[in-house]
Amino acid sequence: MKICTVLKQVPDAEASIRTSGSGVDLAGVTFVMDGMDEYGVEEAIRLREAGHTAEIFTLALGPRRFEEAIRTSLAIGCDRAIHIETDEALDVITQARVLADAVKKEGADLVFVGGKEADWDSSALGPALAEALGWTHLDWTTKFVLTGTTIEATHDTDAGNETVKLSLPAVITTQQGLNEPRYPTLPNIMKAKRKELRKATLADYAAHAPLTKIASEAIQVKARLNKILSGEGPETAKQLITLLRDEAKVI
Amino acid sequence: MILLVSELNAGKLRPSAREIVTAARALSAIGDEIHALLLGPGAAAAATEMAGYVSHVHFCEDAGYEPFKADVWTAAVAKTAADLGAKAVILSASRSGLSYAPRVAIRLGAGLLEDVIEVESDGATVGAKRFTYLSRVTESIRSLGLPVVISVKVNILSPADPAAGAGQVATIALPIDEAANRVEVLSQAKASTGGVSLDEASIVVTGGRGMGGSEGFTKLIEPLAGCVGAAVGATRAVVDAGWRPYSDQVGQTGKSVAPNVYIAIGVSGAVQHLSGMNRSKTIVAINKDKDAPIFKVADYGVVGDLNDVVPELIKLLKL
Amino acid sequence: MNFDLSPEQKEMQRMARQFAAERIIPNAAKWDREESYPAEFVKEAADLGLLNITIPEEYGGLGLGLVEEVLIGEELGYACMGFDTIILASDLAIVPIKIAGNDEQKKRFFPLLHTGLGAFCLSEADNGSDAGALKTRAEFAGDDVVLNGTKMWITNGGVAALYVVFARMETEHKHTGTVAIVVPADVPGISHNKLHGKMGQRCSYTAEMIFENVRVPRANILGEPGDGFKIAMKTLDRTRITVAAGSVGVARRALEESVKYAKTRHAFNQPIANFQAIQFKLADIKMGLDTSRLQTLYAAWLVDNNRSHGQASAIAKCRASDVAFAAAGEAIQIHGGYGYMNDFPVEKLLRDVKLNQIYEGTNEIQRVVIARSLLK
Q1: Across the interface, do A138 and B183 touch by the CB < 8 Å criterion?
Q2: Which residues of C touch A185 (CB under 8 A)?
């Protein structure tokens, strides 16, 4: 079996985001592997530890700096990596098509993708990739069991959650709750040095015209009243109710 | 023409059905003809209601559309959009919507405008606004052509008023392609939000680590939510600790909500949490740490012990 | 010249930083308050490979250098200087074996340090910096050597798997008469008293070590009898670079906490960061931080490349710990009344980092070392 873990490198959640001109300025920002993708890497490694014979490869599409996140995945335990290096901010649908081509070329039975990207706040990559591959997908997965080629999994839905059964090949989008991602150990960081990190370019895959473009980005600001009450519990509670009823008129 | 896909909840139109009508009307440069598609049991009855807002309603009562399955919905929506020659497909960015919209876009060769809060069109392209970087940035995004698939963030756009005349209602044959039905649902569990869905609730009461344990929710959060008809939310720390199920989680890894009132109790306000609630119209925070980041986004804040303040709130609201 | 870290070094730094943020920082105040030794977390660090990284590969170690150790040390020191000391003091037992041990000794002793801590027993109640004035005695008895004496302020004493003990041999001249002996923790006759009431670094386990008729084979002597003092000094020449690294971490923490506080704390209707009195303090900390980090990495690089490093390591240790102590003091000043309370992490930085000016050769001794190398 071959398992593919797709990953992105995104600004650390604690990093403060600035804009310059009409776009986000990421200069000086600390980048990390998208936390949502870590669950996929961890799950792939756990499948192998649970006895599935699997080659695990990392697939990433993005600028040179993604290399660090890719190396992290190798240090955690992925066997090799393909980095399609580009500075173009391709839209998610076009990304999915390029990645689908790469997955087909490498051959894979199971693909893990983070449930929601911490930079674009997008949860489209997994479903779009599955569609481009002609596979089914399961999103927001919190429990995953693979027996042979059959998956039994639990995922979040609008109403709550559901447990489903499906077969490989499939794209699984991962989220918190699925597992507890491990740290790469120092010995594994050193071993990862010898693992293959293959560089590719968009020209190596079928060309697709972009469908959307980002026109501008601006820091979101919403002015808040910041009325802070302090004092004895009963008194502040009374003041709060009055404010919500008479000033905000919301209850 | 524009195709809307309106979601049903237990056979009834979801409130978001009228919000996506608002989005469709904002795209009149593409065309005034708005069609709506309704799938699943209850579609016929809901279609009559929907006809008050759009020119055409197509419905298919096939029970195979309930519960939601991305594969099955993708096939039906993409086929309908292609057959009707839709220039834009609009649906609401619920969990289900976010799950199949990208697939429809791939199938139609369309651009995807995901989880948008505003749309406009010049007739040849569609522009939209959406949040990025954990909801800290507003991005303006533009399609490079048509068609487009648009998912609209829930609870942001105001619900549309009825149109002048009633639209036509007709059934549509969309038999389920069994080959495409690749996911079998074994069981379902409802979230514990007291019957009020987190996405659509007009008031959300969220408890954080400061609740101290699951009993903090049963003794304080649930009764308070009950007083004001609110949904119950939780932070990541809380669901990680197992005090509440993951489905209650609000934030980057959970649900993104924008209710009229968001009441955060014992919540410190990590960026990941703020990204899921900072569009709420009014934010109330109760926390004993006066420096907690949650107070920066709060309209009304109470610095104090939640064990003193919340029981008092419940008492006053019950009067 | 190249200031870039290798991809592996960046990855180690990232992992250490994440471990520090998620596992150490949330617990450090509690360890400090309770003066408790975090055994479980030391094991976690060991499982991640953060412990004893400089053991050569041919003896089953990772074979990493001091540069890597400095990178990790900064991250651990940032989170809790006491925890950093536990991990890095172990090096004090590795280095003597590395520089003076023979192949047989390395094969025998390094495996004990794959997951266990080492400890360095030099200081005594009546002598610290004057390492030549040892009172602990080593007597030869056939093929064995018998140790008697008491060591003071021993980091990891009582929790280590292995001790490198420095002792005086009978009748010989003070410095040339010292011997370095490896003593595994399970040898009979070793006991310890945990020292309580430390000002800072309260989670690191510090003990008085008592050696009472402790008998080990002569084959446990590192180098020749009489090499002890030289081995101790050579060891400290290297290991004090890790003290510098921890100090850099403390200074960085002081700066980051201060910047965060200065931006949010308001006075006279504006953030206090607007005031130059605050800005100058921040700028001074930053200058000290960056220059001491460069010197620390430089000294580590000299060691890794087998260059003469005694002076550079003394400069790094002295400079970085002085900078960090000053930075912690200014961080408290910037925090005002809050800084003086243990609700904020900055007062702990000051208490912790005071020790960095004292142990592994006081900063006065470092200045002597630097001056001597200028005047010789």
Answers
A1: yes
A2: 15, 47-49
Least-confidence region, from A101-105, A233-237, B264-268: A233-237
Suggest the residue from B104, B119, B132 to mutate for an interface test with chain A (most A CBs closer than 10 A). Answer: B132
Band (C68; pLDDT cuts 50, 70, 90)? very high
**CATH code for the structural domain at B203-318:** 3.40.50.1220
- Quote the ipTM score: 0.93
Q: pLDDT tens digit string along B148-207?
A: 999 999 988 999 999 988 899 999 999 998 888 899 999 998 766 556 778 778 899 999
* Contacts with A116 from chain B: Cβ below 8 Å: 252-253
Q: Which CATH architecture has domain B2-180?
A: 3-Layer(aba) Sandwich (3.40)
- Cα–Cα distance list, C83 to C36, C64, C155, C322 (Å): 11, 20, 11, 20
* Chain A residues with beta carbon closer than 8 angstroms to that of C52: none
Q: Is C11 on the interface with A (CB under 8 A)?
A: yes
B248 touches chain A (CB under 8 A): no
Strands (DSSP E) along chain B, which ranges? 2-6, 8-9, 12-13, 34-39, 56-60, 88-92, 111-121, 126-132, 137-143, 148-152, 168-171, 184-190, 203-207, 231-234, 261-265, 282-287, 300-303
Domains contained in chain C, CATH given: 7-112 (1.10.540.10), 117-229 (2.40.110.10), 233-375 (1.20.140.10)
Q: How far A72 CA lies from chain C's nearest CA (Å)?
A: 7
Within 8 A of B115 by CB-CB distance, chain A residues are 121-122
Query: Which chain A residues are Cβ-neighbours of B296 within 8 angstroms?
Result: 224, 226
**pLDDT for A180-224, tens place per residue?**
999 999 999 999 999 999 999 999 999 899 999 999 999 887 888
Asked if residue A56 has pLDDT above 70, the reply is yes
pLDDT band at B126; cut points 50, 70, 90: very high
Which DSSP letter does residue B14 get?
Answer: -
Mean pLDDT of chain C: 94
In this complex, do A68 and C48 lie within 8 Å of one another by their Cβ atoms? Answer: no
Contact B246 A131 (CB under 8 A): no
Q: How confident is the model at residue B102 (pLDDT cuts 50, 70, 90)?
A: very high
Q: What is the structure's pLDDT at C173? A: 53
Token representation of residue A187: 């010995």
C259: contact with A, CB 8 A cutoff? no
Q: A243 and B101 in contact by Cβ < 8 A? A: no
Peptide bond into B67 cis (omega under 30): yes
Contact between B134 and A13 using a beta-carbon 8 Å cutoff? yes
Rg (CA), chain A: 22
User: Which token pair is C291?
Assistant: 């220059």
Distance, in angstroms, between C62 CA and closest chain A CA? Answer: 7
User: Taking 70 as the threshold, does the pLDDT of residue C132 lie above it?
Assistant: no
Q: Is B190–A159 a contact, with Cβ atoms under 8 angstroms apart? A: yes
List the catalytic residues of C: 360
Give residue-wise pLDDT tens across range C226-280.
899 999 999 999 999 999 999 999 999 999 999 999 998 888 989 999 999 999 9
CATH superfamily of this structure's domain A2-204: HUPs (3.40.50.620)
Contact between A185 and C18 using a beta-carbon 8 Å cutoff: no
B293 prior amide bond cis, ω within 30: no
How do the domains of chain A map onto residue ranges?
2-204, 223-251
Would you say residue B318 has pLDDT above 90?
Answer: no
d(CA B52, CA B47): 9
Each residue's pLDDT tens digit, A5-34: 999 999 988 788 899 988 999 998 999 999
Q: CB under 8 Å to B176, separation ≥6 — which residues?
A: B62, B64, B65, B72, B75, B76
Pairing, β A212-219 against β B137-143: antiparallel
Per the CB < 8 A criterion, the answer to whether B186 and A163 are in contact is yes
Residue A133 touches chain B, beta carbons under 8 Å: no
Tell me which residues of chain B, numbers 56 to 95, contact chain A at a CB-CB cutoff of 8 Å. Answer: 67-68, 70-71, 74, 94-95
> What does the domain layout of chain B look like in residue ranges?
2-180, 203-318
